[in-house]
Design brief:
314 residues; mainly alpha; single chain
Length: 314
């Protein structure tokens, strides 16, 4: 969690995509090399920062989410309040799990690795989306961003924002042929111990959640389970799919390291868009945590512009 030396930056940038190859000779090569060095110097200043806030938010948020059930069942809080809090926590949970997916809280071999994994595990339970599955799919997205066959998020593409919002719901339907079938195919192609574990974890979490739903409904708390878990989950998944997948990657026509995502201006602002306005920085350097991508972007803005990236939205 301390500041990282510059020599580690290049390796961590590889989490996002292969390095861009420049011309073999000529001034363009030297210029691009200097731009890359400046880019990495800036990136290094935003890596290795304290990450305790994510751990506190994840564990505290999960504890609050669990507490919503008895509070609503006892009538201590109204269902509408429980719904709003739950939807907020379920949506925000993906942000904390996202940092754990990239091992930004603690990398393998570090003393706090267990905390990194715990944050990831608890953050995605409200979404009924196990961390093992979320991590595999997200890393595959980085490796194959905008590839129609290998990017797990490619089915989120739609011609317009409203169509994208509708598609976030349709893609979760079993007979639609969207994200669910795309995920299954990618997992089958990976055919690794990790992919098989992710499938097992998904089945167990979904069965456990369905059993809890049934037990709550059978006990007379159908409205509680609907308001505190079922509906917030679906709203959170649509919100996440729209802002983390569709908005920064539309129209998904390019796959280059500097072209597979874009800078955009959200009507809801940087925080409400979950920091995705500057998602480009995350794809370039996944080890820069979400709360530092905006600052890193504005320091890096001239460098990115010199590379031909459209920085006009911000």
């Amino acid at each position: 969690m301390s500041a990282q030396p510059l020599e580690t930056v290049a390796g961590r940038a590889a989490d996002a995509a292969p390095e861009v190859r420049t011309p073999a000779a000529g001034p363009a090569r030297d210029e691009r090399r200097q731009l890359l060095l400046r880019e990495r110097e800036i990136a290094a200043r935003h890596m290795g920062v304290p990450m305790w806030g994510y751990s506190v938010a994840a564990l505290g948020g999960f504890a609050l989410w669990v507490a919503l059930f008895p509070l609503a069942m006892a009538g201590i809080i109204p269902l509408w309040l429980g719904f709003l809090v739950s939807a907020t926590l379920a949506t925000g949970g993906y942000v904390t799990s996202h940092e754990a997916m990239h091992s930004n809280i603690a990398r393998k071999g570090e003393p706090l690795r267990w905390l990194n994994e715990l944050v990831g595990q608890v953050s995605t339970i409200p979404l009924i989306f196990p961390f093992s599955m979320a991590r595999i799919m997200h890393l595959q997205h980085h490796y194959h961003c905008n590839d129609p066959l290998r990017d797990p998020d490619y089915p989120d593409e739609a011609p317009s924002a409203w169509q994208a919002i509708v598609k976030t719901w349709l893609n979760r339907q079993p007979r639609n042929g969207g994200s669910i079938h795309h995920y299954k195919r990618i997992l089958a192609e990976l055919d690794s111990p990790a992919s098989r574990r992710a499938q097992r974890d998904t089945a167990l979490l979904q069965l456990g959640a369905m059993a809890f739903f049934f037990a709550m409904a059978w006990s007379g708390y159908a409205l509680v389970i609907a308001a505190i878990w079922w509906l917030p989950r679906h709203i959170a998944l649509s919100y996440i799919r729209f802002y983390l997948s569709w908005a920064p990657h539309h129209p998904r026509t390019k796959q280059g390291r500097y072209e597979n995502t874009k800078v955009f201006k959200s009507r809801l602002g940087h925080i409400m868009s979950m920091g995705m306005e500057t998602h480009l920085v995350h794809h370039l350097y996944p080890s820069i945590p979400n709360h530092r991508t905006k600052a890193a972007y504005f320091e890096m803005r001239d460098v990115l512009a010199a590379r031909g990236i459209d920085v006009s939205p911000l």
